[in-house]
Amino acid sequence: MFPKILIANRGEIACRVIKTARRMGIATVAVYSDADRDAVHVKMADEAVHIGPAPAARSYLDIEKIVAACKSTGAVAVHPGYGFLSENPVFAERLRREGIYFIGPPVKAIEAMGDKIASKKIAAQAGVSTVPGHMGLIADADEAVAIACQIGFPVMIKASAGGGGKGMRIARSVDEVAEGFERAKSEAASSFGDDRIFIEKFIENPRHIEIQVLADGRGNCIHLGERECSIQRRNQKVIEEAPSPFLDAATREMMGAQAVALAKAVNYVSAGTVEFIVDRDRNFYFLEMNTRLQVEHPVTELVTGLDLVEEMLRIADGEPLRLDQDAVTLTGHAIEARVYAEDPYRNFLPSTGRLKRYRPPAEEASTRLVVRNDTGVQEGSEISPYYDPMIAKLVTWGETREAAIETMATALDAFEIEGVGNNVPFLSAVAAQARFRSGDLSTNYIAEQFPDGFAGTEPDEGTLKALAALACRAAYQLETRGFVEPPALAGGHDSAERSVLIGDKRWDFSIPKSGDSFVLMSGGQGVSIEDGWQPGASLAVSEIDGRTFVVRMDRITSGFRLRYRGADLRARVVAPHVADLMVHMPVKTPPDMSRFLLCPMPGQVVRLSVAEGDVVEDGQALAIVEAMKMENVLRAERRARVSRLAASEGDVLAVDAVIMEFEAV
Is 93 in contact with 108 (CB distance < 8 Å)? Predict the structure, then answer.
């Protein structure tokens, strides 16, 4: 086995590879940019080499610096992780010439499958079902429009070298093709250095299902079942699971056989993934092959019991596969939720900053459930604008899909992140939805379930009452232990009265002074609370009327901020006579910012499409802001005149910075 390997990556995947290498007795070398000097993967590795400034093109994508790091440390092999150089045939070939092992597939396989146009032709020749489309290069927007009209709308415009949702656009009209072609071409050039574009038919309401394959250098190839990756946003996977709740055994066998056939057609070696789109009738079509480890590989590991990183290392070292197809079994169900630094309340725009609080749920493994958190950050880490905004991958396993979902929901309740916007509330909301729990999934799921964006969830009456009782008990704990001055309260010698206000709802409670193990409603109905919140804690684990609640609780003026299952609530705990008066308090009106175009996320202005004095129409493109290598088109909400430009092309702006100002026409 290799004595020392270098991980040509960062963050979560670098930490993931280091863990397996350490268990196998392999020494590890990390590489890092200026932005990652204090990163977790740097501290975990046995050695670390600085490779340049923060921009990936000058550090993690610099082949010469990676090769130099191998030579200076004596690393004999490189694991590329995913992203960056993981599917770069030039990098793999350079390592080969230097006598350094590439822990991945052969160069020719990367070249064949890395080009989406060529890969579809190879797939068709190998007998794999493919989507109708134009696989040739497209010169300009006019040709793109003509091809789209010939295929028939809707169409998918895709970068040939694309991945991770970048360089992809869905077009449903001629106008959308023209604009989508330009945006996809620009993103592809920025992200991959390759602006080639192709167009294919877009399958309505599809599922995104992929097959994991393993192949050794001796001609053996197997598949490890499928992963359902249909919950996506902007073509980026959000929640994945294994196995799919949709496939039957016959379809699984056919998809697996075609994935293996494709891998053999390109003499594939190592771990790889063949992605398909599947329609409502279980017809499936080849999408692409990823010649690397996938972000969502942990769900396959949990249902198969295999360590895919270990298998990649053994295959790269020349070992044959340790099992055949008949030995592959899928046990239980696993779900992965990607925790991103993004603001779900602002259309999931990227968020950057320092993790002031980062306390993931406790990891756990038993014969009944597993909670696993793959991450590359810790409390105090910086989420920078230079790299992917993923904070962690929360993965759960259960004996059934229902058990895995419930374990995931509870783990998300306990996931504490402060300092940057994050999508934990959104993930919690999805995990609680009846449609998700039923397995009725498609790549349109988020758009259909949240057509107006995400604004949090509204708990039912029973849940609200339980949360109100929890807040009441916590406030009383603070008073009885001397943390706050108790208000003047109504009530007799044996009880104290409290009112809890959440939004426009009110609950009146009578608290027995003989103990704090339960709270009585004034109407005589008891609400039993066991355990729960302690002063100074940010998490409450409580049994309320026999139901378990894991609630994030933070003190605010006269009460608590409560976060539970996607809901973000303010609970005010006051004396009843104060509650009577609060209904008469005026509500503060937020300022009218409609005459400004504000930067919705930290990013760089790459284009201003209007000038001062221009009259713009509803829906017209005003500016393009790039964040996390994704281009975001900002549009006018109504007809107006541009009275002032407050930013210029090239400016790097903070969230809510003014880009331009309007006046009525």
Answer: no
Q: Which long-range contacts (CB under 8 A, 24 or more apart) does 512-519 make?
A: 516/473, 516/476, 516/477, 516/480, 519/469, 519/472, 519/473
Tell how far CA 339 is from the center of its chain: 5
Q: How far apart are CA 107 and CA 114, in angstroms?
A: 10
HSE toward the beta carbon, residue 428, CA cutoff 13 A: 26
Residue type, 504: D
If you search the block for the tokens 């355990």, which residue do you land on? 531
Helix (H, G, I), strand (E, B) or coil at 598: strand
Is there a catalytic annotation at residue 379? no
Q: Which of 344, 421, 350 is nearest to 601 (CA)?
A: 350
> Which position among 226, 241, 288, 336 bears the catalytic label?
288
Distance CA 401, CA 375 (A): 24
In angstroms, the CA 47 to CA 29 distance is: 5
Contact between 161 and 190 under an 8 Å Cβ cutoff? The reply is: no
CATH ID of 4-103, from 3.40.50.20, 2.30.30.40, 3.30.530.20, 1.10.287.370: 3.40.50.20
* Residues 527, 136: Cα–Cα separation, whole Å: 67
What fold does the segment set 132-201 form as a domain? Dna Ligase; domain 1 (3.30.1490)
**Cβ atoms of 444 and 230 closer than 8 Å:** no
Which tokens go with 247?
């496939």
Nearest to 232 by CA among 75, 45, 510, 447: 447
The pTM (predicted TM-score) of the whole model is: 0.85
Sheet holding 197-201, edge to edge: 133-134, 197-201, 155-163, 166-171
* CATH 2.40.50.100 for the 596-663 domain, yes or no: yes
DSSP-derived secondary structure letter, 86: T
Q: Are 203 and 131 in contact (CB under 8 A)?
A: yes
* The one-letter amino acid at 475: A
Q: Strand 27-32 and strand 47-50: pairing? A: parallel
Sheet of 101-102, strands arranged across = 47-50, 27-32, 4-7, 77-79, 101-102
Q: Indicate the domain borders of the chain.
A: 4-103, 132-201, 461-582, 596-663
β-partners of residue 334 are: 242, 397
Torsion of CA 476, 480, 484, 488, to 10 degrees: 70
> 221 by DSSP, 3-state: which?
strand
Q: Report d(CA 529, CA 474) in Å as an integer.
A: 11
User: Shortest CA distance to 129 belongs to which of 10, 338, 20, 286?
Assistant: 286
For the chain (665 residues), the mean pLDDT of every run of 10, in chain order, is 97 98 98 97 98 95 98 98 95 97 97 87 93 80 91 87 74 91 84 82 90 97 98 92 97 97 98 95 93 97 98 98 97 98 89 94 96 97 90 98 98 97 97 97 95 94 93 87 59 70 92 63 76 87 92 94 96 93 84 91 91 95 84 91 96 92 94
Same CATH topology for 132-201 and 596-663: the answer is no
Mention every residue, 6+ apart, whose C-beta is less than 8 A from residue 31.
6, 7, 8, 10, 48, 49, 50, 51, 59, 60, 65, 66, 69
Q: Return the CATH class of domain 461-582.
A: alpha beta
